[in-house]
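Components:
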Amino acid sequence: MTIGAQVKGCYSAIKSVEASLQLLTAKTNEQEQQIKLTEAERMITEIKNDLRHQVIQLSKEEPQYQ
Amino acid sequence: MPEWINIIIRSLSLLIILFFMTKWLGKKQLSQLNVFEYITGIVLGGIVAIHTIDPTSNIIYALLSMFIWFIVPFAVEYMSLKSKRFRDLAEGRSTVFIQDGKIMEDNLKKEGYSTDDLLGKLRDNGVFLASDVEFAVLEPSGSLNVLPKKENRPLTAKDLGLKLAPEKEPQTIIMDGEVLLEPLANLALNMNWLETELDKQKVSIENVFLAQADNNGQLYLDLYDDKISVPQPTEKALLLANMKKCQADLELFALATENKQSKALYERNSKKLKHAIELIQPYL
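Structure:
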């Protein structure tokens, strides 16, 4: 497995984490918990964006594995 | 009127009166009966017993005496609620048996407790060594309450400095196969949600004996059919595991890459993810 594929795997895992967090935030009715979950979700979204750039960059570097 | 009808009427009416009187005297009596309340209960019962089996006695006398035995304890209770001094007189005060780890012999003697009694009471509280106790007090109800020394107390999350998520009481939303709407509404959930959750676990509502939900919207089920195993909710555990895996992956990428810019990016994100994990771990 190339690094590109690994990073892509991590990227999709992060996306799934983000979705789970959104689900939990929607389900809970505890204010404090909601705040914490939203905060975590925001961080995960930032990570996700960074990783997306990385995935694009890597796919440019490793065109032979496309 | 034949006597047996008389007895039936007396019994029923006295029974109903007794029922309401005990209701009004409150639940407190059951939990911590002091001698006075104990006697009151017995006398009330005795009055009823005498007047139900004796058709010649005057029922007015029964009602009168029951009223007296009801109204006096009721008044005492009411006044104890209002005044601390009266309460001390009526219900007694607590007596300190052990203070600062030292046994108060005078107080023991005053309450008529022998050393064996004290040790027995301490053992009731799970303390076998008198020197483990910081403070012990005999309540007016006769029970001994013990505060062990700090190092002998059970460890709590506070001692460990752990931060825990506040937890609300779970609500029972299905009982004997019937949906209870009020608890469902308390959790701000509705029938649609319940149906979806049950669909997800592939169980029909008729098969559910008991279902409880916590305030995170996790549903815990018990079915009539015990052969079907219900999966416990694993959503949160999965989420945490996923986050940890991603974090480990990012660290790995940071180590593997030689590109300085990417390395910095991976490291930064790994740290961020770690922070996020710490932030929400108490809730998962």
